[in-house]
Amino acid sequence: MTKIKICGITGEDEIATLNETGVDYAGFVLYEKSKRYVTVQKARQLFEKLNKDIRKVAVAVAPESELIEEIGRAGFDLLQVHGVDAAEAERIAAQTKLPVWLAVNLRDPAEVRRWRREEYHRIAGVVIDAGAYGSGKTFGWEQNGQDEMCCAVRAFREELLAEGRTFVLAGGLNAENVAEGIRIFAPDVADVSSGVETLCDGMRAKSIIRIKKFKKAVQKTEGV
């Protein structure tokens, strides 16, 4: 079954929600420009309360060596990197003992073909995201699952799986469209953030109701 990653965890209430819903991965955004930013120290305080079977993912944008080292010491299970090319991601993976997921932002089929031409040696997985990270939008697959873009992404997925790498679908997922995303791409992991959030006192926070709906939608795809 497709596993679930809830990204952008910022508070103890959200940790309690993840523990109750029993998801597979928790993502902590270590990028200062993000509205879901937390420091490494804050993330450590949070995931000390996280169930041990939920894997902790450090999400960073073009991290410098100092941050990579700090993440490595903090107790994370994975490092997910945005804003770098494949060669830089390989260099980052060489600097850490953590498995590294490379996030790629897609705007058109040409970008998929470019990423497919890259060589992946140390990279443990690839996160397929929309054109703008954190936009809460898909790259358009829900409108036509058989178009050139989707076919190219599925081909990329097959290549990654053949190499033993993890394929993660992100960008604009929610309880209403995740089953279709799984049907089209069969990802190892469905990665969601804004799609399971709600407004609380003027602030966006992870909703236990929305996470349960998301998880139920994923579970319904099992065996399909």
TrEMBL record:
Q: Which GO terms describe its biological process?
A: L-tryptophan biosynthetic process
Q: What is this protein called?
A: N-(5'-phosphoribosyl)anthranilate isomerase
> What family is reported?
Belongs to the TrpF family.
What this protein catalyses is: N-(5-phospho-beta-D-ribosyl)anthranilate = 1-(2-carboxyphenylamino)-1-deoxy-D-ribulose 5-phosphate
Q: Which Gene3D superfamilies match?
A: Aldolase class I
Q: What is its EC number?
A: 5.3.1.24
* Pathway(s): Amino-acid biosynthesis; L-tryptophan biosynthesis; L-tryptophan from chorismate: step 3/5
Q: Which gene encodes it?
A: trpF
Q: Where is the N-(5'phosphoribosyl) anthranilate isomerase (PRAI) domain?
A: 4-209
Q: In its keyword annotation, does this UniProt entry include Amino-acid biosynthesis? A: yes
Show the GO MF annotations.
phosphoribosylanthranilate isomerase activity
Isomerase recorded as keyword: yes
The alphabetized UniProt keywords are: Amino-acid biosynthesis, Aromatic amino acid biosynthesis, Isomerase, Tryptophan biosynthesis
By its UniProt entry, which Pfam families does this protein fall under?
A: PRAI (PF00697)
